Fold Peptidoglycan glycosyltransferase.
Amino acid sequence: MALESLTDPTRWPVVRVALHAGLLLALAYLLQRIRDLHPQLPMRQLARGKGGERRALLVLILLFAVVLLHQASWQLTGMLRPQFMAFMQLYDRRDFNPAHRLRRGRILDRTGEVLVYSEEQADRVRRHYRDGPVFGHVVGYRHPRFGATGLEAVASVHLDGGTPLRLTDWGRVGRQVLTQDEHPRGHDLWLTLDAELQRHAVALLGARRGAVVMLRPQDGALLVLASTPGFDPERIAATLGGAEDAAAPLLNRATQGLYPPGSTFKVVMAALALEHGFNTTIDCPPEGFTTSARYPRIRDHEYYEAREHGTQWRGHGAIGLGTALARSSNVFFAKLGVGYGHAAFYALANRLHANRPIVLHHSAHGRYTMQTLRLPRLDPDDRYGLAQMSLGQGALLMSPAQLALIGAAVGNQGVAMRPRLLRDQPPEALGQFFSPTTSAALLPLLRAVVTEGTARAIDDPALRIAGKTGTAQHAQGRAHSWFLGLAPAERPTLAVAVLVERGGYGAVAAAPIARALIEQAARRGLLQ
């Protein structure tokens, strides 16, 4: 049969019949060879006898069939297996290598801007990543030596063209392997990301290490998932060569980074108070608060500022929840957490998906996850540890994506929608983080943080941002800077979390980034 006939779909079934006929002929030849070796035994006795000949014949036939089927599967369906493709790209030196001809699908942002694409060149198809350091953590990379990560790994089957289920599909795959005329093509992958906003977020972070996450509360669509420093997927070999880089460019700080959230966690504690009907005041004296003389006193930030200026801090006195949130009183929330106790604290943490990573997308090739609230189970007698965690300090850790999700739940009547990266993935409720009543009560309190509290420097009547600053102390130098923002405050359509590692006060480093990004989103018609 001429090679040209293999490209004709009507002729391809003939090839399959020929393969099956070849298998039968090979088995017949094997039987004849065995009979020639044992001429004294008739075929019937050889097949039914009790000696080792029968077992040997069956074993040989079985092994032959297994090898043939495995070889056929490996060759004809290898296009759909990342392991096979990587093996072929690395070790196959043929002039025509099917693995080098696979044109994987493109990856596009929500507006149709192409972020990743494959380009046919003289001897192979090459993968290109536009603005690689900006989108690298999201899309990942695919390399014959180093494997695949991110969406390039998790959505590999889709990008490679899917799995053949029909007989005609198997024929198509076979023709693509045996000929050079038809290049296999994958499916495009559309994301929820807004490429322009992603670039703006990375530019706002600049040379600083940090992360920005922005999503829509109503459907969980991720518009920004930025992490700096980034890496270029087209230069992954060089990046992996410097894997010990202290800047950790391969770490996706947005989803996998875990940090003490600092005062942004007071949003959760305020929700806890509202869930339990809190409507009183707590005394916040200048000397601060501690659960035992063995532990250092927890004080408000004004105490340290007054000491730096050589003045005396007089304390907040008796204040309510709104004032405590606007002024970010450590003493208030430490007392609040200890007052409600371990059981109430852990019950709410469990509703927030604590210690359970959230799956954004999954497939047979892996899962795309984000880290959530990370906290240990304290001894019931450890009241000081509980006080520290109530401030977002101590043993409590959180990812920027989790903080954004908490803010999104506040903006969506307490319902947290599963964060999603794929445009065609249907919205899904992850859980009821807070009651609708609690969420409705929290929004004006968070708006007051921006109009008259620690974040008043970013207030803009046109944007109407609600939010909470955070300054998280840690053992490795300057404090981390946080900000959680929602806009517009009355009915949020955007939730954003910003982290700047060692950025200092949340109002100074993180909050201005959030405002600038929300402003850019408004220009793009996303703030309704």
Notes: Confidence is low (pLDDT under 50) at residues 1-10.
